[in-house]
Specification:
single chain; alpha+beta; NE0471 N-terminal domain-like; four-stranded antiparallel beta sheet; three-stranded antiparallel beta sheet; 22% helix; globular; binds zinc ion
Length: 98
């Protein structure tokens, strides 16, 4: 399913309204934490289960969002990291229902 609206809410959440009118929001810290790019995936593989991520503001502030085809969005973070492409199905799965 594709979104009909995507916005940043309260500087803390990515808010998505879907075609079926359901709404999801994903905490930006969670979004950054699960960045699906190869670099972050590899980084996560190295972390143990006791790992606690610590982020500075720039790492969890979205500077730009770009649609990628019909299947996802590319998130560009303020710290310059912009490799992550989040597919819609993935976002819907990880989002907290509203
Ligand atoms: Zn990444």
């Amino acid at each position: 399913m594709a979104p009909i609206q995507i916005k940043i809410k309260d500087k803390k959440y990515l808010f998505i309204k879907w075609q079926d009118s359901s709404e999801s929001s994903v905490r930006l810290t969670s979004l950054r934490r699960i960045c699906p790019c190869a670099m972050c995936s590899e980084e996560r593989n190295k972390q143990g289960k006791d790992y606690i991520p610590i982020y500075n503001d720039d790492q969890v502030t979205i500077q730009n969002l770009k649609l990628v085809g019909y299947y996802g969005i590319n998130v560009q973070w303020k710290d310059g990291h912009k490799l992550g492409i989040y597919e819609y199905g993935f976002l819907k799965r990880i989002a907290e229902p509203q």
